[in-house]
Design a protein that fits this description.
Layout lengths: L6 H27 L10 H32 L7 H41 L3 H10 L3 H29 L23
Helix pairs in contact: 1-2, 1-5, 2-3, 2-5, 3-4, 3-5
């Protein structure tokens, strides 16, 4: 995958968007729990509605990154592709992919909630301690880590789908791995 020229800006935007969505989700969770907290106050629909809100909020940006990566890749290619198919590929992939990712996020949030509630009742914690423990899972730091991964994944998928389309036309692309050549690069990728 070629490096994204505006990677930091994209990751920052995605991270801020994810942080806003997660914060809103976390605050609604705390409100729904009630005081005293009762997990029975959180119906299945709470989690499903939260997932749908996250997916609908994130899909447009992921699609844009996918399509931008596809466009950049085609600039280097003498063969064209059907942009209607590329656009449909971006829509289909982003919705399917994000829905799966957000479901994983929900499972993590549910485990976090169970753990925080157990500590609250077993250790006699205060409501403030419970809120801190729960909101840790909805933090800007978590959103930032998710953003770095998801921007890269969307760009890579856009390039992979274009490569598949070009292969149908007989153009075979050779993948090249790029690293930052810093101290975090493993001994295999370094050279």
């Amino acid at each position: 995958m070629s490096d994204l020229p505006d990677r930091e800006e994209l990751e920052g935007r995605y991270g801020r968007l994810m942080a806003r969505l997660l914060r809103r989700y976390g605050m609604r969770l705390l409100e729904a729990l009630g005081d005293p907290p009762n997990i029975a106050n959180i119906p299945y629909t709470f989690w499903r509605d939260g997932e749908l809100e996250l997916v609908s909020g994130l899909v447009p940006m992921v699609q844009d990154v996918y399509l931008d990566a596809a466009r950049r890749m085609l600039v280097q290619s003498p063969i064209g592709v059907d942009w209607a198919l590329v656009n449909q590929g971006a829509v289909d992939w982003s919705r399917r992919y994000l829905f799966d990712q957000v479901q994983g996020l929900t499972r993590t949030n549910q485990r976090l909630l169970q753990s925080a509630l157990a500590a609250y009742f077993e250790q006699g914690q205060t409501r403030a301690q419970l809120e801190t423990a729960i909101l840790r899972g909805f933090s800007p730091l978590r959103a930032e880590m998710i953003a770095v991964t998801e921007i890269t994944r969307a760009a890579t998928q856009g390039e992979l789908d274009i490569a598949r389309e070009l292969a149908k036309e007989g153009m075979v692309l050779v993948p090249v791995w790029q690293t930052n050549a810093d101290e975090r690069v493993c001994p295999i990728c370094g050279p």
